[in-house]
Design a protein that fits this description.
6-stranded mixed sheet, 10 helices
Length: about 250
């Protein structure tokens, strides 16, 4: 579980995060949504330690990040997996080399142990027979699966995903969403996803926080979205006529 309390962050005198408090639950897919400029990327980077909040605390299962010693922060980082928006794979490395990279860098496992673990996660994300291919030789969806496999190869407690469906067609995006949700539940990971994809919200939004102009304007689940009267989230989600029709149908059924 990750708990944030009264987080504030400014850049050049402009406050981007304005006293945000939230809990990201273990074993669930926690989504951060909002329009461009709402502060969701700054919040994600704050959780990752890339930005230091001006005020407030971020705690990982009771460990307040700002109070940790340098060696404790390094230890915490080994418990974090990250799926970057563009995949961030090494073009010159094969699939198995990309996935095994964190183990070579941050563990003392033998080559045989690394190979065993790499093959395990390759099979888990359904990339059988892709071990020796380069990123340029596989599809965008397969590249995202490689990125997910690399993020979980170290058995992380916390998984962060930045726009994991960026650049994917809707069908492939659903596959990636479901894979992230399955892995989250299977390994009891605290997963935090920064996304603007409303299909992802409706597919895997077990816990959602909605930011508007740096403020936490709403939180709930994908089911709560159909029932809320909060104007901010309604305007954001139901700007699409499709979602307006879905909400209307849901309310009629109830």
């Amino acid at each position: 579980m990750i708990t944030i309390k009264d987080i504030e962050k400014s850049f050049g005198g402009s406050m981007v995060l304005k006293g945000i408090s939230a809990v990201f639950e273990t074993g669930k897919t926690n989504l951060i949504i909002g329009q461009s400029g709402s502060g969701k990327t700054v919040l994600l980077k704050s959780l990752l330690g890339i930005h230091t909040p001006d005020k407030g605390t971020i705690s990982f299962d009771g460990r307040i990040y700002s109070e940790l010693k340098d060696n404790e922060k390094r230890e915490l980082r080994t418990e974090i997996g990250m799926v970057f928006q563009g995949g961030a794979l090494f073009d010159s490395m094969t699939v198995e080399e990309n996935i095994g990279f964190p183990l070579k860098m941050f563990s003392d496992k033998s080559d045989a142990e690394i190979a065993e673990r790499v093959n395990f996660v390759i099979n888990r994300v359904h990339l059988e027979n892709a071990n020796l291919k380069k990123p340029s030789e596989i599809s965008g969806g397969m590249q995202k699966r490689v990125a997910i496999a690399r993020a979980i190869v170290n058995n992380p407690k916390y998984l962060f995903c930045d726009e994991p469906n960026s650049g994917l067609d809707p069908k492939t995006a659903i596959v990636i969403d479901n894979l992230i949700r399955e892995i989250t539940a299977e390994y009891n990971i605290t997963t935090v996803i920064n996304t603007h994809d409303m299909n992802s919200v409706m597919e895997i939004g077990e816990k959602i926080i909605f930011l508007k102009e740096g403020v936490l304007a709403w939180e709930g689940t994908k089911k709560d979205i159909f029932k809320t009267d909060n104007e901010a989230i309604v305007d954001f989600v139901y700007s699409s006529n499709l979602f307006k029709k879905i909400r209307k149908a849901q309310n009629k059924e109830e």
